[in-house]
TrEMBL record:
This is Sodium:alanine symporter family protein. It comes from Mordavella massiliensis. The lineage of its organism: Bacteria, Bacillati, Bacillota, Clostridia, Eubacteriales. Belongs to the alanine or glycine:cation symporter (AGCS) (TC 2.A.25) family. Its main location: membrane. One of its GO terms (cellular component) is plasma membrane.
Length: 466
């Protein structure tokens, strides 16, 4: 019975994350890039500057930087480390170029979905800001039923891809490297998570503001050290990545390019999964930001895709490809396993290499747990009828319980279900982005050259049911 269910879920997952979803997501990325007048040219410069600019007088719960790091906490995960290796193993080194391109174009979609999240956000009676695809669909398109569907799918996915799989990754690393019992890891992670998430978005944002920059800088420094050791192979690696993104061929040892179709499929799929542009998750955090107008926060949010994919995933890809080219005797079995391939790359740094990789996986996974806890809360509060804090306490307790048991259960099926839910939740969000594209263009033209202008539109207050 279990095998039958697993086979069905596997088949469905393969379909939903196949070419139709890739075309839908990448098509939206390209479409919104043109509709916004190549917003990327503003995101990198203005967005990064705004992300570290405080605007305490603006309406919102947390700073723009706090909202960004909360979204990055959920976005930058083990997929940035091991996932890139898997893309290279399945699609060849050319997949790295398609990962990068999906990030470049994905900036426009992340900008767009964050803009409508802020534009259509609401405020609770106790002053909490809420927004995301559900309110954009409800208030912008009068499609509450579709907003409800998005909230249900995202809320369920938070337990799997946001919590269970991440705790399991931490437990596996801790057990393999330090012989710590998995259950003990689950209890510790659950306690640390409870301490943070019971403080709400402000508590989560405060932790993420400190954790995300540390973990990103620590990991990037490790990548730079490896690239420094492999400096002779950087230019050849870039040439190989570009060449094998379009043509089949071999680079070194077991490193093989399978042609444009496979490189595109696995590269784009991994890039989209990594940066979450179009999935509708990050805008939930963006809606809580202190911002004068929707465009201002949308620019800040769009930098998340830049850091996640254009920078971190690209560096990981270069590290892995230069490592294989430097060591042509690496066999095909090692190249075909993303985890082993990543371990071999970081093993080049004496003593500290495995430590950097281990700490990177642990911090990346834990930050994802925190970020998705907030996403799940907002989704549950929306589809549960806005019952107030009672429903939030119940969700948090269940989330923590999942963290405790995750290290000691088989997660293959959980991962597949959550992964499938992520694909399904992207569809309502992309409908909101595409159908509200005229509003996105209008708001962009209004504020892009007047970012200090304040949006005077009052934020509606919703009442909690008693």
């Amino acid at each position: 019975m279990f095998d039958a269910i697993n086979n069905v879920v596997t088949t469905v997952n393969g379909v939903v994350w196949g070419w139709p979803m890739i075309i839908l997501l990448l098509g939206t990325h390209v479409f919104m890039t043109f509709r916004t007048g190549f917003i990327q040219r503003h995101s990198i410069g203005k967005g990064i500057k705004l992300s570290v600019t405080k605007d305490p007088e603006a309406e919102g719960e947390v700073s723009q930087f706090g909202a960004l790091t909360t979204a990055l906490a959920a976005t930058i995960g083990t997929g940035n480390i091991i996932g890139v290796g898997t893309a290279i193993a399945m699609g060849g080194p050319g997949a790295v170029l398609w990962i990068w391109l999906s990030g470049v174009f994905g900036i426009a979609t992340k900008y767009s979905e964050s803009l409508i999240a802020v534009k259509y956000r609401v405020k609770t009676e106790d002053g909490r800001m809420q927004g995301g695809a559900f309110y954009a669909l409800e208030r912008g398109l009068n499609m509450k039923w579709l907003g409800m569907l998005f909230a249900i799918l995202a809320g369920l996915a938070s337990f799997g891809i946001g919590c269970a799989t991440q705790v399991n990754a931490i437990a596996t690393v801790a057990n393999e490297n330090f012989n710590i019992p998995p259950l003990a890891v689950g209890i510790v992670i659950a306690a640390l998570t409870a301490f943070v998430i019971f403080g709400g978005i402000k508590s989560i944002a405060n932790v993420c503001e400190k954790l995300v920059p540390f973990m990103a800088v620590f990991y990037v420094l490790g990548c730079l050290i490896i690239l420094g050791m492999n400096y002779d192979f950087i230019i050849p690696a870039i040439a190989t990545i570009c060449r094998l993104a379009f043509t089949p061929g071999a680079a070194a040892g077991g490193l093989v390019g399978t042609g444009i179709l496979m490189a595109m499929r696995f590269g784009i799929a991994r890039g989209l999964f990594s940066n979450e542009s179009g999935m509708g998750s990050a805008p939930i955090a963006a809606a809580a930001a202190q911002t004068r107008n929707p465009v201002r926060q949308a620019l800040v949010s769009s930098t998340g895709t830049f850091w996640d994919t254009v920078v971190v995933c690209l560096m990981t890809g270069l590290v892995l490809v230069t490592t294989i080219m430097k060591n042509p005797n690496i066999n095909a079995d090692e190249v075909s396993d993303g985890g082993i391939l990543t371990s071999l790359a970081f093993g080049q740094i004496p003593v500290l290499g495995p430590l950097i990789l281990t700490l990177g996986i642990i911090t990346f996974a834990y930050s994802t747990i925190l970020g998705w806890a907030y996403y799940g809360e907002r989704c549950v509060e929306y589809f549960a009828g806005r019952f107030g804090k009672g429903v939030l306490i119940g969700y948090r307790c269940l989330y923590i319980a999942v963290a405790v048991i995750a290290p000691v259960v088989a997660l293959d099926l959980v991962w597949l279900i959550a992964d499938t839910l992520n694909a399904f939740m992207a569809v309502p969000n992309l409908i909101a982005v595409l159908l509200l594209s005229n509003e996105i263009v209008r708001e962009t033209k209004k504020y892009i050259n007047n970012l200090d202008m304040k949006d005077e539109t009052p934020v509606p207050v919703i009442k909690s049911k008693k």
